[in-house]
Amino acid sequence: MSDNDLEIDLDDLERRMDGAMASLRSEFGSLRTGRASASMVEPVMVEAYGQMTPINQVGTVNVPEPRMVTINVWDKSLVGKVEKAIRESGLGINPQLNGTIIMLPIPELNEERRRELTRVAAQYAEHARVAVRNVRRDGMDQIKKAKTAGMSEDEQKLWSEEIQTLTDRFISNIDKALENKQTEIMQV
Q1: Do 8-27+110-186 and 46-105 show the same overall fold?
Q2: Residues with Cβ < 8 Å from 173, sequence gap 6 or more?
Q3: With 80 as the cut, is the pLDDT of residue 54 above it?
Q4: Is the pLDDT reported for residue 47 higher than 80?
Q5: Which listed residue, 47, 49, 71, 126, has the most CB atoms within 10 A of its CB?
Q6: Could you give the 3-state DSSP secondary structure of residue 164?
Q7: For range 22-46, the mean pLDDT
Q8: Largest Cα–Cα distance in the chain?
Q9: What is the pTM of this model?
Q10: What angle do CA 139, 141, 146 make, to 5 degrees?
Q11: What's the whole-number average pLDDT of the chain?
C-alpha cells in the first residue's frame, strides 16, 4: 500500500461542492424577480424525442422587452410539450401561443408571489446543502476506507477536519447566496 492510497482527494470534493454551488446559481437565475431574463427558463426541461431536454435546445429564447420572454420552438410538434413544461415548471407564468412562438408575459410580482419565490429559493438552497453534505459523506467514507488501509488516527482526524472546513465554507456560501437572493426577490 503506497502513501498515495491514503490521500483523500480534497480537490475532487471541492470540485463537486463547486458543482452544487453552480447548480444553485443557475436555479437562482431562473427565479424571476419581475424582469424578464432568458435564464429564467433554463431549468425547465421538455420531453423531446424521448428524453428530457432543456428548453434552449428545442427553441430560441429571446427577451424582446423587459417584461416578455419569447421561445421560438424549432419543431412544430414540440410546441405543446414546451408550453406544458412551462405551465408545470412553477415559474408562475401563463404561456401564450402564436404559431411556433411561445410568449411569456412577466407579470408584476405581488407580495404573495414574492414570498412564494423566497420559499422556492430556500428549497433550492436546501437541495444544494444536501448535495454538499453528500460530497462530505463521500469524503468521510474515503477516510474510513483509508483507515482500514492503514491511515493513522491523527491523519484521519486531520482529513476529517479539512473536509468539515470545506463543507462549512460551502454551506456558508449557500446561506449567503440564499440571503442575497431573498433580499433581491423582496425588493419592490
Answers
A1: no
A2: 21
A3: yes
A4: yes
A5: 71
A6: helix
A7: 80
A8: 68
A9: 0.65
A10: 95
A11: 88
Which CATH class, in words, describes the domain spanning 46-105?
alpha beta
Is 8-27+110-186 CATH 3.90.550.10?
no
pLDDT tens digits for 95-126?
Answer: 999 998 999 988 777 888 888 889 989 999 99
Can you give the residue ranges of every domain in the chain?
8-27+110-186, 46-105
Angle, CA of 57, 60 and 63, to the nearest 5°? 130
DSSP 35: S
Cβ–Cβ under 8 Å, residues 20 and 8? no
* CA angle in degrees (0–180, nearest 5) for 156-159-165: 140
More confident residue, 32 or 109: 109
The whole-angstrom distance between residue 136's C-alpha and the CA centroid of its chain comes to 19
d(CA 174, CA 144): 27
Q: Which amino acid is at 172?
A: S
